Hints:
The structure holds 2 protein chains of 2 kinds.
Chain A: H1 13-28, H2 40-64, H3 76-90, H4 97-115, H5 122-135, H6 146-153, H7 157-185, H8 191-209, H9 211-220, E1 232-241, E2 245-249, H10 262-269, E3 272-276, E4 289-294, E5 297-300, E6 307-310, E7 314-319
Parallel strand pairs in A: 3-6
Antiparallel strand pairs in A: 1-2, 1-4, 2-3, 4-7, 5-6
Chain B: H1 4-26, H2 29-45, H3 56-72, H4 75-86, H5 95-98, H6 103-112, H7 116-127, H8 132-139, H9 143-160, H10 167-170
Amino acid sequence: MSKMDARVVRDLSESKKRVMSNVVQHLQQRHEKKSAKRWPYGVLAMILSVCIGLFIYQQYNEQQQQASTIPPVLDERILELYLQLDSFMNGKNRLYKASFDNFLYFESTFAYAQSKKLVPTQEQIDKALKQFMEEWSYEDDTRPTYDKLLQMLQVTNEGFIENFGKPIAYKMATFDLLWEASQADYKDVSSPIRTWLVEQEAMNYLEQHYHKDIASLREKYKIPEKDSQMKLIRSGTVLAIKEHEFLVVSGVLASEVGQKSVDELVQKHSNGTWFPLVDIPQTLSVGDRVEVQYRQSIGNDDAQPFIDYKDIVEMKIIKESH
Amino acid sequence: MLLIHELERIMEQHTERLIRLAFYYVRDLQSAEDIVQDVYIKFYDNQQNYEERGELKAYLSKLVSNRSKDYLRSWTYRKIQVQQKIFPQQTVMRRDMLVQQDERTLIENAILALPFKQREVIIHFYFEEMPVIDIAELLTIPESTVKTRLRRGRELLKLQLQHVEWEVLLHE
């Protein structure tokens, strides 16, 4: 059964139990102190990578420097595009906070890649531009058609390519290079988790270097600074731990761990979530009962309908396996 | 001030319906669960925004509807969409996929495949059983727009469901 099949919502008794139990746990644990500052290792790793990157890519860069105009970081033209796409959805001239956050993520990966002196070739930029323009030929019911968009932006096809297509393509090509480079940093890591780890590094970089510019854009577009995203909770048993990720399955009995395979337990309990392995207790072991706070899903696996990937805010061990 | 055990009673009554509603928006069960969890916590934290005289069912539906739209605009959703286009996953053929789909599944999957704007009004009209005027208020669009989207949605469904006798389509 694929994820997008109505049969997955036939019997929601397990889903209901999970949601109710997570909400109650969350509310009951409000008083607990927030965890220590996150991402210290990530930041150190980032600084180290940047230092090494600076040396290596300086020479590489000289050979690859292009005549193309390098678009600015936090390019407002892209925000204008988001604004039009949002207007299509909400019928008002209002930018969603979620879109502003998207913009920051997009710009952060570009700024971070630039800091690593990753410069795309003209061929890579052209390929990205072709890909970006092809995107508009796909049907997507959450956005206007290409022609409608041109009307909304009041530009011609050529104007759109020049003002939006090319700067975005340059950035897409740049962060393609960043993803490629990240494969060396995060070997044997699932794609959603690796992407999330790199995004965290990139966002930290952007916030450190462009703090004032971000604040000014927030003010201009009336975007609330407060993070409206709630912290959600997933409780369950750790069934697998890898170098950069760990798997939590809800509803598993202690007696089942080790008796059945991980796949069997995921199928039996119809859930399984991989989280990034960051800032977690060193004693974490398979069989531990844990509670993980997260903000959102970061990917799924169509080949395994019950498996998904989520980000992480913090986690704690409720009961150790032995 | 609502107490946790009172919230539990509310969740007992509304959770499955709200997960289903979120699913029809975002078309992914795990994300639908997250959205409903998020909505309950927001509801608990912002009780002052809920007027007792209003209908709780409609209020919770509105929160789920808005949160689902936020999700559809999120970086994560867009990224997953792009990943799926660029790296199409190999689909494992499972035994239950080979089973003939019943009529109800065919109808629901046809609705899931509708464009967003038509899908949204169809969900509220047929599954949430909301009158047009309430849908218009919920989505902050004119009643005439709701009716147009319903009509277009039904036309698209008729094309998809030519061999299925769904009374909704027969009587329209």
